[in-house]
Design goal:
Helices cover 29% and strands 23% of the residues. The chain is elongated, with a radius of gyration of 21 Å. Strand 9, helix 3 and strand 10 form a beta-alpha-beta unit. The chain has two domains: 53 residues, Urease, subunit C, domain 1 (Roll); 164 residues, Alpha-Beta Barrel (TIM Barrel). The mean pLDDT is 95. It is α/β, with parallel strands linked by helices and 235 residues long. Helix 2 packs parallel to helix 3 and helix 4 runs parallel beside helix 5. A four-stranded mixed β-sheet has the order 5-4-1-6, with no helix packed on it. A four-stranded parallel β-sheet has the order 8-9-10-11. It contains five helices and eleven strands, in the order E-E-E-E-E-E-E-E-H-H-E-H-E-H-E-H. The N and C termini lie far apart (53 Å).
Length: 235
């Protein structure tokens, strides 16, 4: 059982029901869960001195595309509106595979951890060259961040009037089957879970009405969250 004490924080923001702000207080943590906050707590094991420090609850990131970490500041995409930016980057993302997904997620999650984030969602909606949702789940486990990946999807490609290249979209039945697979394999609904999986059709213009409906029904049936984009800009 891992147990330690954060001792004597100069300023401790509790975010409890009373929004208490404590000075010189301690935090007792057992198996990754805070079990007590107060002054002069007994130390059960390792002690981490927090003198001169501000201690706050971890930040929560509610929307991210971790696979895009590797494609920041790409010439041609800078200052473009959403659709133009996507059209510049789709050809790069088409060449991604499991390793690129894992590395990109690792970098993005490490940056978040260093910035005080302890829980991040991720909206991954393209799976080129054998990439799978677990590429990002493995990265989060290695970094140690609590993770809420969502199995995204696009099903309307250029040939059907959509924006993404046809080889970045998927068959809708296969999308739903893989949503079920990753939920059954990785979703942990218990309190303190390190990984919960959601369902996330990319947007109303990149999937059919039927897939959006079926994804919502699947999420309800599995007891997981539904996530998407809506009205991102005037385009």
């Amino acid at each position: 059982m891992a147990e330690f004490l954060i001792r004597g924080a100069d300023y401790l923001l509790t975010m409890n029901d009373r929004r208490e702000e404590l000075h010189g207080a301690d935090i007792h943590i057992r198996d990754g869960v805070i079990v007590d906050v107060g002054h002069g707590l007994p130390h059960p094991g390792e002690v981490v001195m927090a003198t001169g420090c501000v201690v706050t609850p971890g930040l929560v990131n509610t929307h991210h595309h971790l696979y895009q970490t590797l494609t920041r500041a790409v010439p041609g995409g800078q200052d473009a509106l959403l659709f133009g930016w996507l059209q510049v980057l789709y050809p790069i993302w088409q060449r991604f595979g499991p390793e690129e997904m894992r590395v990109s997620a690792s970098i993005g999650l490490a940056e978040l951890a260093l910035s005080g984030c302890t829980l991040s969602s991720d909206h991954l909606y393209l799976f080129p060259n054998g990439a799978r949702l677990e590429d990002t789940i493995e990265a989060a486990a290695e970094i140690g961040l609590r993770f809420h990946p969502t199995r995204g999807a696009m099903s309307i490609g250029e040939s059907a009037g959509g924006l993404p290249p046809d080889d970045l979209v998927e068959d809708e039945a296969a999308i739903l089957d893989d949503c079920i697979r990753v939920i059954d394999a990785f979703h942990d609904p218990h309190e303190g879970s390190m990984c919960r999986v959601g369902v996330a059709p990319c947007s109303p213009f990149s999937v059919s009405r039927e897939l959006m409906r079926d994804a919502a029904l699947l999420a309800r049936d599995k007891g997981v969250m539904l996530h998407t984009h809506l009205a991102e800009n005037e385009e």
